[in-house]
Design brief:
With about 575 residues, the chain is α/β, with parallel strands linked by helices. The protein has four domains: about 1-65, Alpha-Beta Plaits (2-Layer Sandwich); about 80-335, no CATH class; about 355-425, Orthogonal Bundle (3-methyladenine DNA Glycosylase II, Chain A, domain 3), CATH 1.10.15; about 425-515, Beta-Lactamase (2-Layer Sandwich). It has helices at about 25, 50-55, 70-75, 90-95, 95-110, 120-135, 145-155, 170-180, 195-200, 215-225, 255, 275-285, 315-330, 340-345, 360-370, 390-400, 410-425, 445-450, 470-475, 515-570; strands spanning about 10-15, 35, 40, 60-65, 80-85, 115, 140, 185-190, 210-215, 270-275, 295-300, 430-435, 440, 480-485, 490-500, 505-515. A five-stranded antiparallel β-sheet has the order 13-12-16-15-14, sandwiched between helices. Strands 6-5-8-9 form a four-stranded parallel β-sheet, with helices on both faces. The chain has a three-stranded parallel β-sheet with strand order 7-11-10, covered by helices on one side. Strand 8 (about 185-190), helix 9 (about 195-200) and strand 9 form a beta-alpha-beta unit. Helix 6 crosses helix 8 and helix 15 crosses helix 16 (about 390-400).
């Protein structure tokens, strides 16, 4: 299992933006993307920091570490000089008038020394040409591009000894600046490359570059500081390169700067850009029978002028190329040749194989079978998951880099099976008819409701019921019809929903059995009526009884009054009244 999201890693994922599209997996040239629970993580141990995923992610979920705050902190330390090393690709980012004002703008930010990285590029090209001339018996690889170096170290470790032991122009220039301005000088590199952030942190290069900014980070810094290039005066860099070093960002620029053969038809010096061309030519270098060549590789297509961290990325790449070339020709560099010592230009590289163990064939077959790929015929190799072949994807699953659910055809089959399962097990009757109202299919519940079998498929729906609701929907009179229908023939009462599928020219009917609910409602209504009648009878009886009791109570009261009157008369020796019998 590989780790993800290391603290301080250069390229990483903004999880809030990741949308489970596998685009980054498809475009990553080294498949350093790990999928987990539908989200894509950049695996730092495998990433070469080329920035391809940053450029290609449609949601902007891939991004790179921002170091502008670190640069501002370095700038705040007034005890040490701050030098800017500006990559020669600046002429592809800024217009001509902006390029002429860029040094002044950098000084306004607080840089005490402003120079072009191309100064180091010239020295790197010179040293590369010397070593290539000394080692013509085997193919060699130029090492100015940090993404290429890391790619070879991790994915082509058997070719590490072919890497020329020369630092990149960034490191060469930074070492030169610290020698010229003093060891306490802080060097901030500014360019279009994300991989430079990783390169600056390599242990063998420690102490050379103190911070790496991209052109977008620089432009944002200008904005925060209120610096407008239009209001800056024209000025020169404090240090300019020699020769054709400003062409270094272009394909073939390094060879041209070093005075090497740069004819595109040359069999000895070959320039490649982009991961596709790079992979092909490295395969050739692995062939011991191949003729020795000097390889100038740039990982970005068309070179550094197409880096992943350019400001104004909407400018076509060939417009940027023309812009840089025009600036280099119009403003020729006249800097001196420094002849830096070999110690400032030397470095070393170490092979770092990505996987120590191969995945057993039995495990690969098991994972393929899990997605229904029981043989070569079932391996579609559609690439929808981001991997070129089904086998590659199975290996990635075994290594914890991919998920089984990334197989789109497999997930579609599962979805169809689940859909069919839902229809088959639905308690509601479902029937599908074509535009002519001919029965195409039905589920078990429908067959049970209407006492039929699949034998009725191909017959008109009128064979089972009144077709009028289906006709209304099929003719387009209504989009959906929802009614309650009593099917006396089947002793069935249904809540019916009829709707159309225009694209398929079909009509679907859903029948919800409410027979028992309707019978229960009728029984409840009858019970309520009977209860009302009984209540009315009881009320009438109670009124009659009350009236009868009132009559007897009145007579009893009258007799009681007569009896009391007689008792009074007797007591007074008077003759009593005659009491009438009830």
């Amino acid at each position: 299992m590989v780790s993800t999201d290391k603290p301080g890693q250069v390229v990483f994922t903004n999880k809030a933006r990741c949308r489970d599209c596998y685009r980054c997996v498809r475009v990553c040239p080294v498949k350093a993307i790990r999928m987990k629970e539908g989200q894509a993580f950049v695996v730092d141990d495998l990433c070469i920091n080329c920035g391809t995923c940053i450029r290609e992610c449609p949601q902007g979920a891939k991004t790179f570490r921002q170091d502008a705050e670190k640069a501002r902190q370095l700038m705040a330390d007034k005890t040490a000089p701050i030098a800017a090393s500006v990559a020669p690709a600046f002429a592809a980012v800024f217009s001509e008038w902006e390029c002429l004002r860029l040094p002044s703008a950098l000084r306004r930010l607080g840089f005490t020394f402003v120079a072009e990285t191309a100064v180091g590029a010239f020295e790197v090209a010179r040293r590369t040409a010397e070593l290539a001339a000394q080692q013509r018996e085997e193919s060699r690889i130029m090492t100015a591009c940090p993404a290429v170096v890391r790619y070879v170290e991790i994915y082509r470790p058997h070719l590490v000894d072919r890497l020329l032991p020369v630092v990149s122009p960034m490191v060469a220039h930074a070492r030169h600046l610290k020698t010229r301005l003093g060891g306490r000088t802080r060097v901030i590199f500014i360019g279009p490359c994300v991989a430079k952030k990783y390169e600056a942190a390599r242990p063998e290069l420690a102490g050379a570059v103190d911070c790496v900014l991209t052109f977008p980070e620089l432009c944002e810094w200008f904005t925060l500081a209120g610096i407008d290039l239009l209001r800056c005066e024209e000025s020169n860099f404090d240090e300019q390169p020699a020769g054709s070093a400003r062409l270094f960002p272009l394909a073939g620029g390094a060879a041209h700067t070093g005075g090497l053969e740069t004819d595109v038809l040359s069999p000895h010096v070959i320039t490649v850009t982009g991961p596709g061309e790079l992979g092909d030519v490295l395969d050739t270098l692995s062939d011991s029978a191949a003729s020795p060549i000097l390889l100038e590789p740039l990982f970005c297509n068309q070179g550094c002028i197409n880096g992943p961290a350019l400001a104004g990325e909407n400018t076509p790449v060939f417009t940027r190329r023309q812009q840089l070339h025009q600036f280099a020709m119009t403003h020729p560099a006249n800097g001196p040749r420094l002849n830096l010592p070999d110690t400032q230009l030397a470095t070393s590289f170490i092979g770092q194989p990505r996987w120590n163990q191969e995945v057993p064939e039995a495990e690969i077959r098991r994972l393929l079978n899990l997605t229904g790929k029981t043989g070569p015929d079932e391996e579609l190799n559609c690439g929808a998951c981001g991997y070129a072949t089904c086998r590659d994807k199975a290996i990635a699953v075994a290594r914890g880099m991919a998920e089984v659910e990334m197989c789109i055809p497999y997930m579609r089959r599962l979805a169809e099976q689940r859909r069919d399962r839902i229809i088959e097990t639905s308690p509601n009757g479902i029937i599908i008819v074509d535009e002519h109202l001919t029965i195409l299919n039905m589920n078990p519940a429908f067959r049970r409701f209407f006492m039929c079998s699949d034998a009725v498929c191909g017959k008109p729906v009128s064979y089972l019921m009144d077709p009028e609701p289906f006709e209304q929907v099929s003719d387009g009179h209504v989009g959906k019809l929802e009614t309650v229908v009593v099917h006396d023939k089947y002793g069935l009462t249904c809540h019916q929903i009829i709707y159309s599928l225009p694209e398929d020219r079909q009509v679907v009917g859903i029948f919800i059995n409410i027979t028992h609910s309707r019978d229960s409602q009728q029984k409840l209504d009858a019970m309520r009526a009977q209860t009302v009648r009984q209540a009315q009878d009881l009320l009438t009886h109670q009124i009659t009884m009350a009236q009868t009791m009132a009559k007897f109570l009145g007579e009893s009261t009258a007799h009681g009054e007569m009896l009391v009157e007689n008792l009074r008369r007797i007591a007074q020796n008077e003759a009593p009244k005659k009491i009438n019998k009830m």
